[in-house]
Structure formats: C-alpha cells, structure tokens
Amino acid sequence: MTSTERNALLDFLAEVPFFSEVERASLSELYENAELEQFIKNNRIIEKGDIGDAMYVIVEGQVKVHDKDHSYGILSKGDCFGEYALIDAEPRSVSVTALEDTNVLKITTAHFSQLMDSDKGFVKGVMSVLIKRHRELDIIQEQLASSKKEVEMANSKMTGLIDGAMDAIVMFDGNFRILLANDSAKSIMENDEVLQRNILFFLDDEGADMLEDLVKSKQSSRKQNKNTYLPKIVKVFGSDGKETLHEGTLSCYGDETEVFYTLILRNIDDRLTAEHKISSLETQTEYLQEEIKELTNDHGIIAQHKSMKKVLDLIAQVAQTEATVLIHGETGTGKELVARAIHTASNRSEGPLIRINCGAIPANLIESELFGHEKGAFTGATESRKGRFLLADKGTIFLDEIGELPLDLQPKLLRVIQEGEFDPVGSSITKKVDVRIIAASHRDLLQFSKEGKFREDLYYRLNVFPIEIPALRDRGNDVSLIADAMVEHFSTKLNRKIKKLSQDQKKLFQEYAWPGNVRELQNLVERAVIVSQNGEIDWSFIIPNSNSRAAQGQTAIEPDHILTSQEIIQLEKENILKALKQTRWKISGEKGAAALLGMPPTTLTSKIKALGLVRPV
C-alpha cells in the first residue's frame, strides 16, 4: 500500500465516530496491526453464536445486520459493528452479511487491548468518544423521558376524551378485529372484554353486510381520513341480548401495509321513541279532532225510561273494571255514546278513546287500519303507519259493527284480547299493547257464530259483559225529551228561536216507529229547524207517515167509508215506504222489506218503480 493510500485510510479512520477523538499517531498504530478484508455479495462476515474476537469498520460497501430473515438494519461506509467483542468473549447475538462487495477493517480484541494498555493517547481518545456518547445518550434519555411524559399526557387526554364520549367509538383492523373500544361502546355491546373480538358479531345481518361493503369500498379506493356516513341505521346486539339502534360514521387510517378503521355510533333509540311519540300524538290529534266534531253533536244520554236507566246502571257497574264489553242494539241507538260513557267513568279516562267502524273500511285495508303496517308491506305502503290499537295503548278502543270484521282477521283480534299483543302487517316484530276493548254490533253475533260467519270463541271473549240498548220506539217519553234537547241545540247553533214541543207534537214523536232510532231523530230535527218559519215547525209534515196516520184515524171513525183507487194506491205506497224505511231500503233477504210485506222481492221492485219511490240521499 502506498503512503498516499495509507494516509487516505488514516483520514478515513479519523472520520469514523468511534475513533474521532483518537490522535493520528495512535490511529497509525491501530492501523498497522489491523487487517483489511474483502467479502463478496452475500458472504457472511459474522455468524450468530460465534465467539467474538474482533470489531469491524466498513471501508466500502454495505452489510445487513439480521437474525435469520429478520433484519435489524443496514450499515454502510464509516459504520462499525461487533464492538462488544472488545470487552467480552460472548457469542455473537446477530449475523452480519455483505449486501454487495464490501471491504472492512478488522480490529482484533487482542490488539485493541494492547493499545489500551500501552497507549495513553489511544485510551484518552476512546474514552472521550465514549463520554461524548454517554452525554448524548443522557440528553436523548432526557428527551425521551420528556417525550414519554408528553405522550402519556396526550394519551391520557385522548383516553379521557374517548372514554368520556357518549357516542360509542370502536377501532378495528382489516379483519374486523376490535383493537380499541371506549366505555360507551362496551356498554352497548354489554361486554368489557371486546378486544380482539369480531365487531360484525355485534351487528345485525343487514348492518354487518353494510359495514363489510364500506370497508371493501375504502380498501379499493384507498380513501383515508375521510368520514363516511353510514347509509342505514345499525342495530347492535349486546352480549346479554339488549338491542339498540344507531347512526354513525366510518373512517380509516394507515399505510399500504396496514389500515385501521374507526366506527363511531350514536344511539338514536331515544330520538326514535320521541319521533314515534310525536307521530302518535299527531295521528291521535287527527282522530281526536274527528272525535271533537262528533262530540259537537253529542247530546249525552237522556234516559227516563226504565229500560234505558238499566243501561246506565250497567255502565256504572262495568266502567271501573277491565272487562270486555259487547254492546248490542239497532243502528242509531247510541252504542258509541254508551262506549264513551264507559271509558269516561273508567280508570282509563286519561287515556285515548279510539273508535273504528269495522263495516266502513274495505276488507283489504281493515287489518292495516287496526294493527298498522311497515313501509313496503303492500302496494301503496310508502311509509310505516301505527294502527288504531297502538294509538289506543293505555286507553280504550271501540270496535263498532264488529260483526263486519272479516273472518280471517278474527284470530288476530282474539290474540290481542287474550295476549295483549299483535304483529303489524309486514313486520315480524311483536307489539305489546294495554287496551280495553269495547265492541258493538246491531247483528245477532251468537246466531252469526252458529252460521259460521263469526268465530264462536271470539264471540264469548267479547261477550264478557253484554249491554243491550233498547230501540228508541221502546223508550216511551224519552223520544220527546231527546227531541226537545235537540231542538234547543240546533236552534242555538242555527240562531233560530223554536218553540218547545206541544203535547200533540210529542204524541206524533211517540207514535212513529223510528227505524233509524236516535240518529234518524237527530237528522229529522236538524232538517226541521232549517226549514222552520217564524219559530214554527209543522211536525206532521216532518215526521214520516203522520198524515197517513191521521187519515187512518179518520177511517177508523168512519168504517163505512169506501176508499177510492187513488186512496188505495196512496195507502199501498205509504205502507211500502214504511217497510223500506224500517229495513233501511233492504229489499230481499230474511230481514228485507219484501219479507215484511209478504211478497216476492221481484214484485216489490216492480211496485217501487211503478209508484215512483226513490231512496232519499
């Protein structure tokens, strides 16, 4: 080696950090006894487990420090390795392999020790380097300690922030394994040991599928640090069976090798409950507004006749119980008024009274009207709807004309009566309700059940406490009392002064059969007040058949009077009209007008056309 090459190598050693404080003369002594070795690519310089006897300084090339396939790092020109062999004779802890053709300067332990013993300048230089390194290490340790404290403080703040959040926060990896979960998350999952568990196990099928799709989307698009709102509400199942509904966001962080996901869930059970309550109140308000309209025409129950007083006694007896009541009576007798009276006198009076006429709603809609439906349950169901039974919760439901309820729905009603539960249309979730049922019908339900038109078991469940309302024609002077009250009501409403009924006028009211009962009376009185002149009403022209009765009375006084053909036609016309009104213009059938008149329905139809009889609107 030339002197130039030798000086260049000494200059190189002076730049090596391990020898940077050693004097040049000592470095020259070190170099004289060192060995310059060459290793080609992939040659092993140090083998793990071999006894160390030298340190190495890389002059040219690169080496890899490793343990089998695990790499600790790469060293290059000016770096040293194997220094521990200078102070001990322990086995090597790692292997070192050349990554390319590499030249190293080998300094044996024996030569290094000899210099340490004989060359004070060498000792001083090495010690200076070690002291400098120690000082730098102290500074680094102080910085690490300070950084550790800052990290711990930041971690403490972050942990407090995360654990103090009311929203559930869950971090998981690409395999959906939970890495972090705050207290709120553990609470909704009802599990304090959720780490390393699969988050999908805590979600319903729809929510799990949605989360998997979102993760796949983020993996393919590599969009990170961007919150994605969950497109649907997620249902979370707790380990103890509790179910909660949440909305939330998903974000992801990481690099090309590993990505983490953060799911934030906000419980919306309370909000949905409030929205449900608001919706129920709004719907109930609509019903109540309809009820108020009805109440404006409600004149209460006027009863002096013993048959109606008996009804009032029955109302008082049953009101304070929870018994199911079945009200029977002809159309227009006031079955709804009796139902209202029972509800008002009951312990449920603070709750709603919801009514529904089972005969006024198409058969294909009655189930939805009673029990509600879910969105998409059938064509036209664009949104979920609460049925009348849910609206009547903690109150009373009045099922008018229960005999018209379709047979296929009767088991569902029976289940509500027996179990207090039902399934809305299109839903698999059972609803619980606390409802008192009052039913009413003008039909003979027992006979209906024998004919197979009504379930016998449902009849007996409804007929726990039967109440029979007498027809208006069977209540004696009650019809006059009710008429007087109605005259006063409509007089005030229409701002007209109408005289009270005279005795002769009351007699006219009591003589008429009133096939439409109180409802017919109400309509007749309202019409009479409207057409009244100067406070006078000629009730003989208002009440049907009044003139014919007067004629009949005259005929009775003159039994020898011969009726003309026109009088006979008029008499037949009035008789047919009376039968039609009594049967509400039902012609055929067991209770039709033809049966009352004793003639075939086809004959009666022909006579109606011939006499010019037209059903009133």
TrEMBL record:
InterPro entries (UniProt xref)? AAA+_ATPase, AAA_lid_NorR, cNMP-bd_CS, cNMP-bd_dom, cNMP-bd_dom_sf, Homeodomain-like_sf, HTH_Fis, P-loop_NTPase
User: What residue stretches are annotated with the Cyclic nucleotide-binding domain?
Assistant: 18-116
Sorted alphabetically, the keyword list is: ATP-binding, DNA-binding, Nucleotide-binding, Transcription, Transcription regulation
Matching Pfam families, A to Z?
AAA_lid_14, cNMP_binding, HTH_8, Sigma54_activat
- SMART domains cross-referenced by the UniProt entry: AAA, cNMP, PAS
Q: Tell me which stretches of the chain form a coiled coil.
A: none
Q: Which residues form the Sigma-54 factor interaction domain?
A: 301-530
PANTHER family with a match to the protein in the record: C4-DICARBOXYLATE TRANSPORT TRANSCRIPTIONAL REGULATORY PROTEIN DCTD, TRANSCRIPTIONAL REGULATORY PROTEIN
Could you identify this protein by its name?
Answer: Sigma 54-interacting transcriptional regulator
The species is Flagellimonas iocasae
